[in-house]
Design goal:
The protein has 235 residues and is an alpha/beta fold. It contains 5 helices and 16 strands.
Length: 235
């Protein structure tokens, strides 16, 4: 990927961990951590993504002005941090205050349909769409979520959602607050060993999300579509 201008901004990275080997082979091996510019906080034993974020922030030596919550099986190439920061700054110039940013997600078209957008290497498959980036998003994949700190705070996550649907919930939350969710041009490697699993825990999170957000339906995440009545199907 093309190099972005070097930034001096530091990032607080937080990852929920249940497989130390995956963490070591991927996130901890990422070139962006070769310097002391950023802090990486692995969190074990979290009961939800919200819990991991809360615990990670409480353990930070110094909370930076950009916080990234990401999966343990993500590999961040050299210069990725600068691409993320440049993408968020460009988005703010175009769309206004960014409340949440990611690298892959869903956008709504003029005809009120939904399309996946962004760039990520998902195991051996390059997922890359033709959308110009940065672009406003209706939903973000949870592999990488970047929270700009504004007035000392960030958009919160809902613990009831567990480890699913929180990327969509936070997009709607920042929209309700008058900010934007965006997808930026900062591709990374999602080195998952298990693929996507829409299991019982996902179904529970989706049900909770649907009960809260039916006013926003129809709606799509990167995995499922909700119709106007809250019924979900894989797409």
């Amino acid at each position: 990927m093309a190099a972005a201008n070097e930034s001096r901004r530091g990032i607080t990275f937080i990852a929920a961990v249940d497989n130390p080997r995956q963490l070591k082979d991927n996130l901890l091996a990422s070139p962006v951590f070769k310097s002391n510019r950023h802090e990486l906080i692995p969190v074990t034993g979290a009961t939800s993504a919200a819990d991991a974020l809360r615990i990670g922030l409480s353990r930070a030596a110094e909370v930076k002005d950009l916080i990234v919550l990401l999966h343990q099986d993500i590999y961040l190439p050299d210069g990725w941090d600068n691409k993320l920061i440049a993408g968020i700054e460009a988005a703010e110039q175009s769309f206004g205050h960014v409340g949440i940013a990611g690298v892959f997600g869903v956008v709504e078209t003029i005809s009120k349909t939904f399309e996946r957008a962004g760039k990520v290497l998902d195991r051996h498959s390059m997922l890359k769409t033709s959308h110009p980036l940065p672009i406003q998003a209706t939903s973000l994949d949870e592999i990488v979520l970047a929270f700009p700190v504004r007035n000392g705070s960030i958009a919160g996550l809902e613990p009831e959602l567990g480890f699913h649907m929180y990327g969509s919930e936070v997009c709607l939350k920042v929209r309700d607050a008058g900010e934007v969710a965006v997808i930026v041009d900062a591709p990374c490697l999602h080195n998952s060993e298990s693929g996507y699993s829409l299991d019982q825990s996902f179904a529970k999170s989706a049900q909770i999300f649907a009960s809260r957000r039916q006013a926003s339906f129809p709606y799509s995440t990167t995995c499922v579509e909700f119709d106007a009545y809250g019924n979900a199907k894989v797409w």
